[in-house]
Amino acid sequence: MAMIEWFDDLAIGMQFRTGEARITAPEIKRFAAEFDPQSMHLDEVSAAKTFFKGLAASGWHTAAIAMRLLVESRPFGDHPIIGIGGGVSWMAPVRPGDVLYLEGEIESLTPSKTKPQGTVGMKWTMYNQHGQAVYAFTPMTIVPRRPGA
Amino acid sequence: MAMIEWFDDLAIGMQFRTGEARITAPEIKRFAAEFDPQSMHLDEVSAAKTFFKGLAASGWHTAAIAMRLLVESRPFGDHPIIGIGGGVSWMAPVRPGDVLYLEGEIESLTPSKTKPQGTVGMKWTMYNQHGQAVYAFTPMTIVPRRPGA
Hints:
2 copies of one chain form a homodimer.
Chain A: E1 15-22, H1 25-35, H2 39-42, H3 44-48, H4 59-73, E2 82-90, E3 99-111, E4 117-127, E5 133-144
Antiparallel strand pairs in A: 1-3, 2-5, 3-4, 4-5
Protein name (chains A, B): Bifunctional protein PaaZ
Domain MaoC-like (chains A, B): 12-123
């Protein structure tokens, strides 16, 4: 991916894969205590009595880990990853010990008519170590055009 | 909102408002260091040179604060807030010192045909202390039906 740097280097159907992140029970509880204080995210014993039947990460914790994997994988070279929005889906619980990674595909490319940039539509799917899809994000992001393009 | 507890208590057009949360520069940097390590979120001097022209919270930090405000406001009584997904939009930067709150409206109500629950579609918009919309989330959430309904 080292040669991809500008909007003009991208093509519909191009695929990406990030590195991996392992999530632990203390991380799940710490994030939840600050941002999503509900039983299924806070404590194994209480979580066992919920819909999730065991400790599960907050969906926003999962989304935040996905962002870290994205930033580390630099899909657009050194340019910042600036998202204007998108759709999130949570398909399966993320459990302590899970090892997560993302696969991405470019679905749309729209050059701006007025600015030296374009909007990139992607679908990122996060999988666990069993190959089960746990989360998806379909962001629209802004990527600069190659100078002179 | 104390009388709202079950799917059957909800009506399209019903409105909600959460409490407020103030965000600080150390919080912005701490979240970013863990989940979104990009210059605009990490350091005032570097951030001044970016598109954001100053320190701004990671969009996922903003989303996580919105979740905490939601959980604290208990829009569905004591039932857990279980989201299956939705759309996120970031409209304006969230800055150190901003005081944020959410306003919500029920947009759709779909009873399950097979389970004692329904899917609630809402639009939550987060505003800062200037009344400027900074973030929106349109989640689909699962809420149980009143026993016997």
